[in-house]
């Protein structure tokens, strides 16, 4: 497992053709690992009849709403928590 | 090409069957024909899906409200906690329970499709699958909550959970004031489906006469 809870991470901003489970609104955004869930089959290959192996570690990542939506009008502490697979995450300083 | 005839150009349909239903039926025919599934598998799966209801989730929440140690186990491993109560936590996707308190409120969405803890809550409501909910729950969650009748104070931290992958989230709503003397069974009746999605508070206890 590459990341630990509390660690700052950036979601890769790369485009992806085909099925994947990383929502566009967090691509390129920086958040922090809230929890490491477990490893699951990779939906990007499994969606096309392959075995989805190797399994990919899944994390719950917290983003500040104001980082995701610059004109967010709610309180500063509001957050959006998204499940992101490890191969979509990069270390953020 | 001349186009002066007078017949209609309505699409050819099979009665009122929606196109998506026709496509699924065709897929099912093919899968059965090739021996990938059999009709009994499909029927069993449908029976299971329609047999699920939010009453199961409500039992978990009510037990968590009256038993703090059970609540810890539910937060730690919701699947094991469901089995402990004799409930069916369903096939593989992992259920994670999160707790609403006086200072933290969770609400759940699946922006990519309609992921939902079906084993414990039954089928998702239509609005949960709608594009407006799926987009606005992340971009304007407080506005959405207001429309559902939930006014959060500014000192309550709102956490929106987007279940994009293999995890299914179940919200343990905040136990309402005035419910202190109620039995576990009475409490379960306060726990609505929407309160376990996080777009509503549990029902208020009936005032004591």
Distance between the termini of chain A: 18 Å
- Helix-strand category of chain A: mainly beta
Radius of gyration of chain A: 14 Å
Distance from first to last alpha carbon of chain B: 80 Å
Provide the domain count of chain B.
2
CATH architectural designation of chain A: Roll
Number of helices, counting only DSSP H or I runs of 4 residues or more of chain B: 11
CATH class of chain A: Mainly Beta
- Helix/strand class of chain B: alpha/beta
Sheet having the most strands of chain B = 2 strands, parallel
Overview of this protein structure:
The complex is a heterodimer of chains A (about 90) and B (about 210). With about 90 residues, chain A is mainly beta. Chain A has two helices and five strands. Chain A has helices spanning about 45, 65-70, and strands at about 10, 30-40, 55-65, 80-85, 90. With about 210 residues, chain B is an alpha/beta fold. Chain B folds into two domains: about 20-50, no CATH class; about 55-195, Alpha-Beta Complex (Nitrile Hydratase, Chain A), CATH 3.90.330. Chain B is built from eleven helices and four strands, in the order H-H-H-H-H-E-E-H-H-H-H-E-E-H-H. In chain B, helix 3 (about 55-65) packs across helix 4, helix 4 crosses helix 5 (about 80-85) and helix 8 (about 130-140) packs across helix 9. The radius of gyration of chain B is 22 Å and the shape is globular. Chains A and B meet through strand 2, strand 3 and strand 4 of A and strand 3 of B. Strand 4 (about 80-85) of chain A pairs parallel with strand 3 of chain B, so a sheet runs across the interface.
């Amino acid at each position: 497992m590459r990341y630990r809870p509390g660690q700052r991470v950036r979601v890769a901003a790369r485009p992806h053709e085909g099925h994947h489970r990383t929502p566009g609104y967090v691509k390129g955004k920086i958040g922090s690992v809230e929890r490491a869930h477990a490893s699951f089959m990779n939906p990007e290959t499994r969606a096309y009849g392959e075995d989805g192996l190797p399994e990919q570690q899944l994390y719950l990542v917290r983003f500040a709403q104001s980082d995701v939506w610059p004109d967010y009008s709610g309180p500063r502490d509001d957050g959006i928590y998204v499940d992101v697979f490890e191969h979509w995450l990069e270390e953020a300083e | 090409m001349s186009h002066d005839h007078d017949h209609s150009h309505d699409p050819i349909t099979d009665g009122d069957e929606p196109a998506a239903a026709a496509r699924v039926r065709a897929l099912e025919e093919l899968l059965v024909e090739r021996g990938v599934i059999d009709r009994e598998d499909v029927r069993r799966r449908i029976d299971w899906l329609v047999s699920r209801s939010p009453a199961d989730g409500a039992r978990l929440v009510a037990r968590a409200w009256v038993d703090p140690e059970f609540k810890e186990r539910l937060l730690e491993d919701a699947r094991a906690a469901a089995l402990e109560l004799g409930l069916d936590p369903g096939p593989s996707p992992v259920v994670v329970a999160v707790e609403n308190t006086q200072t933290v409120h969770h609400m759940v969405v699946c922006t990519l499709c309609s992921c939902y803890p079906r084993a414990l809550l039954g089928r998702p409501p239509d609005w949960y699958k709608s594009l407006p909910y799926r987009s606005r729950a992340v971009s304007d969650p407080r506005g959405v909550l207001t429309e559902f009748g939930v006014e959060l104070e500014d000192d309550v931290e709102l956490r929106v959970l987007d279940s994009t992958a293999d995890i299914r989230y179940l919200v343990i709503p905040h136990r309402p004031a005035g419910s202190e003397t109620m039995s576990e069974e009475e409490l379960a009746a306060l726990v609505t489906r929407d309160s376990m999605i996080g777009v509503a508070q549990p029902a208020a206890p009936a005032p004591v006469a």
